[in-house]
Design goal:
150 residues, alpha+beta, 4-stranded antiparallel β-sheet, 8 helices, elongated
Length: 150
């Protein structure tokens, strides 16, 4: 699902917790996740609905002033089945991962995996990483050409 920037801001503030879309088949599923610029949306439920089932409260939870504004929105004017998608916003887990410094044991495990990959593949990961380190700012295609690679 795509969201406009103003809707994403409302999601971030907790003002939007629903989305309505017209799809031939659901494009989201309960338990699924969607990363956005404001965090990770976890899909709580996806249900087919009829227009007459949408309430004023539903419209406000989807970020619209009222039901009429929601039903006239461009994403609902196209053909297809109407779906109600409920979601919750969570912190993107990648943020915590990139801010955490790995332990020495974790570093050893990653290096061991790279060694194992190199043993099974036709490349030497440490040689390539050393080449990248020795040539900061050089484009990957230029470095690959120097190694005779694509």
């Amino acid at each position: 699902m795509l969201f406009r920037a103003d809707t994403l801001r409302k999601i971030q503030k907790g003002q939007v917790t629903l989305a309505f879309r017209r799809w031939a088949a659901p494009r989201a599923k309960p338990g699924g996740r969607q990363r956005t610029s404001v965090g990770e949306l976890r899909i709580e439920s996806v249900a087919e609905v009829r227009e007459e089932e949408i309430t004023e409260a539903d419209a406000r939870a989807a970020g619209f002033a009222d039901r009429a504004a929601l039903l006239s929105a461009p994403m609902l004017r196209k053909p297809g089945t109407l779906w109600r998608v409920a979601f919750t916003l969570h912190d993107d887990p990648r943020v915590a991962l990139r801010e955490r410094v790995p332990t020495p044991d974790e570093i050893k495990a990653v290096l061991a995996k790279l060694d194992a990959m190199g043993a099974r593949a036709s490349f030497a990961p440490f040689a390539h990483l050393s080449l990248i380190e020795a040539n900061p700012g050089r484009r990957a295609p230029d470095l690959a050409e120097g190694l005779g690679l694509e």
